[in-house]
Design a protein that fits this description.
There is one protein chain. It contains nine helices and three strands, in the order H-H-H-E-E-E-H-H-H-H-H-H. The chain has 212 residues and is mainly alpha-helical. The radius of gyration is 20 Å and the shape is globular.
Length: 212
């Protein structure tokens, strides 16, 4: 009997599902409360994971520096997981800082808690927000807007947009808190013909096209 090596079939990597910019705007507009809008805006703008958002403490959101810090903690009361080995700083925009401030003054008020995202209207007030509560929020927004999406699609949308804008893959990997830029590249560098055409124009390979 002649020994043979087992045949390995290549498995096509699934291209991440993303949203159009107009859909993200509609999703945020569909939020009736500032807390809900803030958590979804945070996911959409930074691309952080849900667990990273749920584990945030107020000390991690540094408004004056326009950054948030993802800190690995094993004692999160809601079981939130940061999935990083060391603290990572992520930049945030001025509008997101303002939304955080509005949320704190309008919804959060004088509540005494270290966690940024907490129960305010249902369940035990002040308890850290759970994965299940975020999933219920997303289900409500899906029903309200008619847009099928998940929290992870907000992450995929942000990352894909960065790649299409020409942000170096190493920077995208850092923002997504990936341990390797190879993971980022294999997941998000799936260019369609429209992306390739735009890149050729930007590089000057093709000049202005006119109808003939």
């Amino acid at each position: 009997m002649i020994p043979t090596r087992p045949l390995k079939l290549a498995v096509a990597r699934r291209v991440p599902r993303t949203l159009e910019a107009e859909q993200v705007v509609a999703i945020l507009a569909g939020c009736e409360r500032l807390r809900d809008r803030f958590v979804l805006a945070l996911l959409a703008e930074t691309g952080i994971r849900v667990g990273q958002a749920l584990g945030l403490r107020h000390a991690d959101f540094v408004s004056r520096d326009k950054e948030l810090r993802i800190v690995p903690r094993a004692d999160n009361a809601n079981g939130a997981r940061a999935k990083v080995g060391a603290t990572v700083a992520v930049p945030v925009s001025t509008p997101l800082v303002r939304l955080y401030s509005d949320y704190m003054h309008t919804d959060y008020g004088d509540l005494d808690s270290d966690y940024v995202f907490v129960n305010l209207w249902g369940g035990r007030r002040g308890r850290p927000l759970s994965y299940a509560t975020v999933n219920k929020l997303i289900a409500r927004i899906r029903t309200r807007t008619g847009i099928e999406f998940t929290a992870h699609m907000l992450r995929h949308t942000h990352a894909t947009d960065l790649v299409r804008r020409g942000v170096p893959i190493e920077v995208v990997a850092r923002l997504l808190t990936h341990r390797s830029s190879r993971t980022t590249s294999e997941t998000y560098v799936h260019l369609g013909v429209g992306d390739i055409r735009a890149a050729l124009h930007q590089a000057g390979v093709w000049g202005e096209e006119t109808d003939r």
